[in-house]
């Protein structure tokens, strides 16, 4: 049997990241979230901080001339395909290489699209009621409800723009995924168990 690949998209404050880690542990998968930035940086020769500052944003180059980008080895400004698509390609290559190594859980970063031709792939999207998401963001960032609501709106707008631009699909829309789940209904832990059962049935595990 080929490697199991679980791709998790998530709304901010939905508990998607916690559930993704839960699934990684359940199925003995390598977990990739921010780690992908490190892999992409190594792949490209560019600073990991540069990838981090432009993470899941369509406008990769918007901060290019406002930060220092350490370049290493043979890689330099002139012989790299230094563009939005070039940087996206570095991250895509890192995702494909990681997927070839073993069972994986990827969080966001259009991994569902990048790995669309792989077998044994399942694409999950986790949502939650807005009020609960606002509460989570307030708690996580120690901010008031109005600020949390704006934070969610702005960051999800950026995330959706990135996803839609590179995939030609719609972020968060059910037709883009195999399973969409509202974690408010069962709670985060039970939602993780529900998804794990779904994955076992899909792959006959």
Task: Chart the SSEs and their pairings.
Blueprint: E1 5-10, H1 16-26, E2 30-32, H2 35-44, H3 48-53, H4 84-101, E3 104-107, H5 111-114, E4 121-127, H6 130-141, H7 145-167, E5 179-182, H8 183-186, H9 188-203
Parallel strand pairs: 1-3, 1-4, 2-3, 4-5
Averaged pLDDT, please?
81
Order of helices and strands: EHEHHHEHEHHEHH
Number of helices: 9
Structural class: alpha/beta
Q: Which strand order does the major sheet show?
A: 2-3-1-4-5
Helix fraction, binned, reads 40-55%
Kindly estimate the percentage of residues that lie in beta strands according to DSSP: 5-15%
Rounded to an integer in angstroms, the radius of gyration calculated over CA atoms is: 17 Å
What do you see in this structure?
There is one protein chain. The protein has 205 residues and is an alpha/beta fold. The chain has helices at 16-26, 35-44, 48-53, 84-101, 111-114, 130-141, 145-167, 183-186, 188-203, and strands at 5-10, 30-32, 104-107, 121-127, 179-182. Strands 2-3-1-4-5 form a five-stranded parallel sheet, sandwiched between helices. α1 (16-26) packs across α9 (188-203) and α2 (35-44) packs across α4 (84-101). Mean pLDDT is 81; it is low at 58-82.
